[in-house]
Amino acid sequence: MTVSAPLLVPGLKTLAPDYSAILCDVWGVLHNGVTAFAAAHDALSRYRAETGGKVVLITNAPRPAQEIRPQLARLGVPETAYDDIVTSGDVTRELLSAQTGKTVLHIGPDRDLPIYEGLGLTFGEDASADVISCTGLVDDETETPDDYRARLQELVDRSVPMICANPDIVVERGDKLIWCAGALARLHEDLGGEVSILGKPHAPIYDAAVNRLVQLGVEPLDRSRVLCIGDGLPTDIRGAVSQDLDVFFVTAGIHAADFGPVDEPEEGRIRSRLAEEGLTVRAAIPRLSW
């Protein structure tokens, strides 16, 4: 991968001719959990219409893709912006399906329960659990990971492993940062527990997304012509780089405070942070637009 000069570009149109497909993050790029970003979904819609390229949304949401479509519609993201969706929930279901016969402890809100539909799992409480399935904090508006420390320590002491369905540490919800399942997975690991994660930045979700592109007709697939768009350095950016995929970095997401004025980020700060993280990107933009 190469870094363009300058790093900051005016819009996706600058890069679009070089790519036949896009893997685009959702939360932080297309919406903030409260409202959709019109310029962002317009950019993807225009990319599809003007280049014929395919767009697969790739998200660490701990729910199946069919649950995400109506959520996007409610927020204002039209289906013209994408061809398909691959979620962390989708790839995690395969691992969860192998837990048949074990007692599963679900940690997370009830809205994430669709991830278990049709898997035939047996659920129980902490004392009887053989494995933890973590989709998030039960009440992510008021709780913090530290509220789970004692509980997780007891589970770690019994060698109960965790399957994390959402690797994100935090996401934006409106103007707030909300803790996600990845924060509990990190704590579980810090306490000495075993954790399995399949979403971004790990390979399984990218393999699933690339396979989906092939199913959509992007074949033969040339990975040098697949562009990943995201705002999270530890998930979106690191994951794409680890898969040798080019990256378009949206800076006004969860790292917005790190680069100066949100809508006029300082390129030097972006380059320094990327260097510190050992990451390279094709280009950057404050907010996704055409």
From TrEMBL:
GO terms for cellular component: cytoplasm. Pfam families: Hydrolase_6, Hydrolase_like. One of its GO terms (molecular function) is phosphatase activity. PANTHER family: 4-NITROPHENYLPHOSPHATASE-RELATED (PTHR19288), OS08G0542600 PROTEIN (PTHR19288:SF90). InterPro entries: HAD-like_sf, HAD-SF_hydro_IIA, HAD-SF_hydro_IIA_hyp3, HAD_sf. NCBIfam families: HAD-SF-IIA (TIGR01460), HAD-SF-IIA-hyp4 (TIGR01459). This is Haloacid dehalogenase.
